[in-house]
Design brief:
Blueprint lengths: L1 H24 L4 E3 L32 H13 L3 E9 L1 H5 L4 E3 L10 E5 L1 E7 L11 E5 L4 E7 L5 E9 L1 H5 L4 E3 L10 E6 L1 E3 L1 E3 L5 E2 L6 E3 L4 E7 L1 E2 L2 E9 L1 H4 L5 E3 L9 E7 L1 E7 L11 E5 L4 E7 L11 E8 L3 E7 L7 E4 L3 E2 L2 E7 L2 E6 L2 E6 L38
Parallel strand pairs: 2-7, 8-15, 17-22
Antiparallel strand pairs: 1-4, 2-4, 3-5, 5-6, 8-10, 9-12, 11-14, 13-16, 17-19, 18-20, 20-21, 23-24, 24-25, 26-27, 27-28, 28-29
Helix pairs in contact: 1-2
Length: 416
């Protein structure tokens, strides 16, 4: 019994040591490194560190030998780790509050050195007003090595821009231009303090005119770029669409140029700008709308189109034809067994059977119609005899009259 208790206590102690070792080695993704006199500083040299650029986690000089031994084993058997140190320049941007972080976590000051797991990491930089951020940096940390990064914020570079709008007629109608988040500008007005680089110009819409399709403008530092942008007069045609059949028109069928307003049947839409358009049709319950139409509108032309709605084909009738009777060339009668009925029912040509109309009666078959679709229904014939077996003989009919019984004989008395 004592031996088993000793085994259990030893197992508990061993498990506790393992937990402590791996807990210390994996307590966080990165650990700020303490820099004390006589220890290794942020650049791996012996000397006094700059306390403003480091963050202390603990002082190992006060730890017991047991804890230091555990830490040594954790370093040996724990996950591979290295160091990252980031320096931000110039000093003006550091004074303005520029910081960095690793993988989007806590913001750190310039010059901070941290301990991280070996592998790939992303270094981000804080946005500072009136400065251009350094790009994101992807780095690879190796075991027991320090990866040093110098990140430089750049002062912004500016240029000037002016846009001349033509023709003069469109300027009088309110044509204007803008760039970036600047307000709308009149033709010929100059804007300063625009960040250099490629810029996309925007133009205010003017009724009856197409806005310019000007390519991006390349702005150079301290240079004035002058651009001429031309509005062009719009060209128009018209579109008219006919919808069939009349029944679906009465149920609300309409058409439109895609994403536009709905139009009724045979409505002509004027002032359609020259170009290629898609015509779509409004859904109507119980009907399948036509496929979209593609139309090309040219100047001063009328483009016509037609859309035909159709009714989806109904299911095949699920009742059984049990008999037919032809009367003349166009009349007749059919007997059918409906699904929920016990007895057969008779119907004349022109009458409805369930939701189907009886349109024709033939010898052993009928034609039904629903929603413009015809269905032929035939009487079921008895199954043919199995091969190699003689057809069953019908049972013989027994006589309905009784056979007369014979007259009993008369026995004479015997003489003695």
């Amino acid at each position: 019994m004592n031996r088993w208790l000793w085994y259990i206590n030893a197992l508990i102690l061993f498990t506790s040591v393992i937990v402590v070792v791996f807990g210390l080695s994996m307590s966080s993704e990165y650990i700020p490194i303490s820099a004390k006199k006589g220890n290794v500083n942020s650049r791996g040299e012996s000397g006094q560190p700059n306390d403003s650029q480091t963050e202390s986690l603990y002082d190992i000089s006060h730890d017991s030998n047991f804890v230091n031994a555990i830490r040594t084993y954790a370093k040996r058997w724990g996950p591979a780790q290295g160091y990252i140190e980031v320096t931000i320049t110039p000093p003006q941007v550091v004074e303005a509050g520029a910081k960095w972080n690793l993988n989007g976590k806590k913001w750190l000051n310039s010059g901070t050195r941290i301990k991280v797991n070996a592998g790939d990491h992303i270094v981000n930089f804080q946005t500072i007003s009136k400065w251009i951020n350094p790009p994101l940096k992807k780095i690879t940390v190796t075991k027991s090595h320090t990866t040093q990064i110098i990140a430089e914020y750049m002062p912004p570079e500016y240029a000037s821009l002016t846009v001349e709008i033509i023709p003069a007629e469109v300027r009088d109608l309110g044509g204007q231009w803008k760039v970036d988040d600047k307000p709308w500008q009149d033709s010929g007005q100059k804007i300063d303090q625009i960040l250099v680089g490629k810029k996309k110009l925007q133009f205010k819409p003017v009724p009856g005119w197409k806005i310019p399709t000007h390519p991006a403008v390349e702005l150079t530092k301290d240079q004035l770029e002058t651009v001429t942008a031309e509005y062009t007069l719009c060209q128009y045609g018209s579109v008219l669409v006919t919808i069939e059949p009349e029944e679906v028109v009465g149920k609300g069928a309409q058409w439109r140029i895609k994403n536009g307003s709905w139009n009724d049947n045979d409505t002509r839409q004027e002032q359609v700008e020259v170009g290629t358009y898609t015509i779509e049709f409004k859904p109507v319950e119980g009907w399948t709308p036509p496929k979209d139409l593609i139309v090309n509108v040219s100047q001063d032309s009328l483009i016509t189109g037609m859309g035909k709605y159709i009714v989806p084909k109904p299911p095949v009738p699920n009742f059984i034809l049990t008999g037919t009777m032809v009367i003349g060339s166009e009349d007749g009668m059919a007997w059918v067994k409906l699904p929920k009925e016990v007895k057969d029912k008779g119907f004349f040509v022109g009458e409805k059977i369930d939701t189907y109309t009886l349109t024709e009666v033939n010898d052993g078959s009928v034609i039904l119609m629903k929603d413009g679709y015809d269905f032929t229904l035939q009487m079921k014939e008895p199954p043919p005899p199995s091969p190699g077996r003689a057809p069953a003989r019908p049972p013989e009919k027994r006589p309905t009259t009784r056979r007369e019984r014979p007259t009993p004989r008369t026995r004479l008395p015997r003489e003695r």
